[in-house]
From TrEMBL:
It is found in: Cytoplasm; Nucleus. GO terms for cellular component: cytoplasm; nucleus. Its main location: cytoplasm. This is CCDB1 protein. The keyword Ubl conjugation does not apply. The keyword Cell cycle applies. Residues 22-163 form the Cyclin-D1-binding protein 1-like N-terminal domain. Residues 175-267 form the Cyclin-D1-binding protein 1-like C-terminal domain. InterPro entries: GCIP-like (IPR026907), GCIP-like_N (IPR049317), GCIP_C (IPR049318). Belongs to the CCNDBP1 family. The gene is Ccndbp1. Keywords: Cell cycle, Cytoplasm, Nucleus.
Length: 316
């Protein structure tokens, strides 16, 4: 499941039928996990015949989950397929862990590890209800973009809090004899640092605005009626996945002691945003009515990056 690739089926693919079947197989797997765990929750142990039946039922449930996953053709979109694959893998791995726990447990009583492993399978099987079931790949891409936006929002809020005038970004770290006293100036921002960081914050906020606007555009205009549209949605999700790590990398370079040269050379943020905006503009989710904010945010990224370069010119 983790490494294999579903192929294009011979029969016409029906998304409602797929979701129904996937939900049913996940439910059956959850029930089989319960049966397996209860059978080994107290002595006496099941007979060899009962063990054989239990193992066959578990195996059949897992094979059914994998089989339904393989129904989902590549043409439905890589973003949707990845989400279903991750959910399927989590169920399979959960059942493996439960089985290993039972094999290694004492026969005298139900162990805490067995309870946790059983709950892990239940939780993994319940995830099927959280998978995006809207219009094919469009709903999956909306979910992926929303997740990226959430990460970037958290990073922006954390850095805004740390940049409050007089705020010590390491204030939540206890004083340590080996690290030195809290008066160490390397734990505070200078005025020059703050001027540079205001532009860095501009880039972080531009990242948040880009994700927010593209998310809204995909919701309003995203379609999955053709292979080209599905591929464009997938590409938007892939590029968005590059933005949150680049925001984290930029945020880390902003903590004192600030290395202006490292900040200047960190072009991943600018490149990710420009790539994201360019691809959005050329995709079907950006009709003429959406072009205004794309141009505005492109200018905002350029403006803040130029300010960063000006502040750090002497570092070259």
């Amino acid at each position: 499941v983790a490494e294999g690739e579903p192929g294009e089926g011979r029969e016409p693919f029906e998304l409602p039928r797929f979701w129904d079947a996937l939900g049913q197989t996940f439910q059956v797997t959850s029930q089989e996990a319960t049966k397996l765990s209860l059978a080994f929750s107290r002595p006496p142990l099941p007979s060899a015949e009962d063990c054989q039946k239990l193992s066959e039922d578990v195996q059949n449930a897992i094979l059914a989950v994998a089989t339904v996953y393989y129904w989902l053709p590549k043409g439905q979109g890589t973003t949707l397929r990845k989400m279903v694959r991750d959910a399927t893998t989590e169920v399979v791995e959960g059942m493996i862990q439960l089985t290993d726990t039972i094999l290694n447990a004492s026969a005298e009583s139900l162990s805490q590890e067995q309870l946790i492993s059983t709950g892990g399978v239940w939780e993994a099987c319940e995830q099927v209800s959280n998978l995006p079931r809207g219009e094919y790949n469009q709903a999956a891409v909306v979910s992926a973009l929303a997740a990226c936006l959430g990460v970037v929002k958290d990073a922006v809020e954390e850095m805004e809090h740390a940049l409050v005038e007089g705020q010590d970004p390491y204030g939540d770290i206890m004083e340590d004899e080996e690290l030195g006293f809290r008066g160490n100036r390397d734990t505070y921002w200078s005025e020059a640092d703050r001027q540079l960081l205001s532009s860095c914050m501009g880039l972080m906020k531009a990242s948040k605005a880009c994700l927010k606007k593209v998310l809204a555009a995909v919701k309003a205009h995203g379609k999955a009626d053709s292979p080209e549209q599905i591929a464009q949605l997938d590409d938007l999700a892939d590029i968005a996945n590059e933005i949150s790590p680049s925001v984290d990398e930029l945020a880390l370079s902003m903590y004192p002691p600030v290395n202006p040269l490292a900040v200047r050379l960190n072009h991943t943020q600018e490149a990710s945003l420009m790539n994201f905006l360019h691809f959005c503009r050329t995709s079907h989710v950006c009709p003429p009515s959406e072009e205004g904010w794309v141009q505005f945010l492109t200018g905002a990224v350029d403006h803040n990056m130029n300010k960063v370069k000006n502040f750090t010119q002497g570092q070259l």
